[in-house]
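Annotated sample (chain length 278).
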Amino acid sequence: MSPDEDRTPFGQSDVVRLQDEDAVATLVTGAIQGLWEVVNQLTRLRRARRENFRVTIFGSARLSPGTFAYAAVKQPATELTSLGCDIVTGGGPGLMRAANEGAAAVAPASGERSVGVRIALPFEQEVNPFVGAVYEHRTFFSRLHHFMIVADAFVVVPGGIGTLLELSLAWQLLQVRKLDNVPLILVGEMWSGLVDWAQRAMLREDAPSPMPATSGSRTACARSTRRSRSFARAARRGSRPERRRDRSGRTGRALSGPSRSPSCTRRTAGPCGRADSR
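Output written by the structure step:
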């Protein structure tokens, strides 16, 4: 066959015809993977300095104003905003609204202090009225990625499957060190069972794991369980959890403030990149 005969009517020899489904699938897959690499590279970018420490709060969309849980989320969001933090939520109703309302009570004229990262759902048509800056996503994948990039700390309050999904991704990225120095705080008795299960099932000697369980990992998990229960007791009392000392002698504090000054420089890593200052 001559070179001229090998050419398609479009004048190219590498054209993929729509009738060739296997070739089309290969082309589309390669193109999508190329786009992912573009996203991976772009998400490595960070500001040299960000004004405020950002706390992302995950929680139920089903709990209404006037409930105990709503007030218990609104109060710490207000305190965190007073300390100089920005509050980031899913922008919807329920406990997301409670967190945004708490932030807006302190900084009503500053949109960036109360942020909503939305997902398009048929049963949640509008962003809650206390969101100052809103970001819209059509897929859970991109929305979850957005949460992981912007957060300096995660606070997980009671919720359902969506909250569990958000918690699981943050936990996984911390485990494999794609996130670094980002606190993950579970608030409420409902999470104690999850942490207890993780201790029993994931840290036992014969559990499927890339590395053997250590006494340090068990200690850290147990400490996380104690903190979760302390937060729940404090929420019921309407007071701040007491300061405690860990075994190294350092003093730690629960949800009364961020682990560092809001304006400090932090080392963190995006889900797809190495650690960068922000």
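Annotation: The two ends are 60 Å apart (CA to CA).
Annotation: The first strand starts at residue 53 and ends at 58.
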